[in-house]
Amino acid sequence: MIAALLQPDVQDFINQNYLADLKKLALRRNPFPEISWPDLLNQLQAKSKAKDKLPTWFSAKNIIYPQKISIEQTSSEQTAAYKATLIQGNTLIDLTGGFGIDDYYFAQHFKQVTHCEINPELSEIVAHNYTQLNIKNIDCQQGDSHAIIQKLNTRWDWMYIDPSRRNDAKGKVFMLRDCLPNVPDSLTFYFQYSDHILIKTAPLLDIKAGLSELRFVRKIHVIALDNEVKELLWEIEKDYTGPIEIHAVALSKDRETVFSTIYDQSMPATYSMPTHYLYEPNSAILKTGAFDAVSAIYKIGKLHPHSHLYTSDAPLDFPGRRFRIEMVIPYQKTEIKNHIEGKQLNITTRNFPLSVEELRKKWKLKDGGNAYCFFTTNIDNEKIIVICSKI
Question: Cα–Cα distance between 331 and 203 in angstroms, integer?
């Protein structure tokens, strides 16, 4: 299939039509009968998805794309580039190589990277693309990663694993033992070949649940891109039993912020009524659950044990949204009618019994504008509305 897709006229067709309406295009006659129409349409769809997510691949010539699920599940270049800065050494083996975005960036920090992929077609595509990208220090191995490890029979500075959930795994609970490879049950085997393992999991995995299944966790990284948590990274070191660092990483086009603390360390929070400024932590911090640590480290007041909003007298450079408090009113009918009913507002709820949709309907509130309202609960367990302007 790769040779057929690389024909110049086929590549020209892909480059000229990747933004086309695929539903309409699918109704047309296939201009290249030697290539299946679904395969060609997949190249168009995948290239379109790669434009923002994988700009290096998108910009390179003669790149072949796998099925769209591989594009959807792969790391973005921005998260892959950050991830690669966390570890370094001479050798790394990736047991679940996929489309190879992570390994492209690992190869910039390691002398030699081994990419394992059980899908023969995907392995061939990745090897071809690395050639197009002029990457010479990645060895693509096709087959089952356990068998490849045993065949190569060497030790690596790092192992990298991105387990995927089995199709037959039932229920909403995300457990690592429901994934392939089954990392918890394979750790003893892996430690025969490396003392350091980096595991990527989806944000759906609960941090406490992950720690209950894994051993020797040294660090956890919660990675968010544009305030959406994209992945959890677990650094494991053989026989490590010390405190676990947890890092909340917020990436955007023009900024990178990292909030770090020790997981489950007792750091008493300070509580306060809303004062002059209000802070909402970014999604990565919220995923860590280190709510008291935020208060202790930034020396700011928390509104309530379960509200996860913070306040201070003076403005701070805070890892999240920052607001100037214009007014605080009790959640009472008269106050609401006097100040916000029927107005255009951006609404957020934290530790509040009604949802945003319910509040909009009940008080005829329109979405948008420059005013921000937080419906929440204060330290006296009173329902309040904090009316703010964004800084």
Answer: 34
* 213 and 228 part of one domain: yes
Same structural domain, 239 and 329? no
Among 351, 372, 354, CA closest to 304: 351
Interval 348-379: pLDDT, tens: 999 999 999 999 999 999 999 999 999 999 99
For residue 26, what are the domain limits?
Answer: 2-71
Residues making up the chain, counted from first to last:
391
Long-range contacts of 252-257 (CB under 8 A, 24+ apart): 252/225, 252/226, 252/227, 253/226, 256/82, 257/282, 257/319
Same-domain status, 228 and 239: yes
Same domain? 85 vs 112: yes
CA separation for the pair 268, 355 (Å, rounded) = 29
- DSSP secondary structure string for all residues of 45-99: HHHHHHHHH-HHHHHSTT-----HHHHHHSPPHHHHHHHHTT--EEEEEETT-TT
Do both 151 and 162 map to the same domain? yes
Q: For the segment 25-57, what is each residue's pLDDT rounded down to a tens digit?
A: 999 999 999 999 999 999 999 999 999 999 999
DSSP one-letter code for 168: T
Give how many domains the chain has, as a whole number: 3
Which stretch of DSSP H or E encloses residue 375?
strand 366-377
Give 205-270 as a DSSP string: S-HHHHHHH-SSEEEEEEEEETTEEEEEEEEEETT--SPPEEEEEEE-SS-EEEEEEETT---PPE
Cis peptide before 181 (omega within 30 of 0): yes
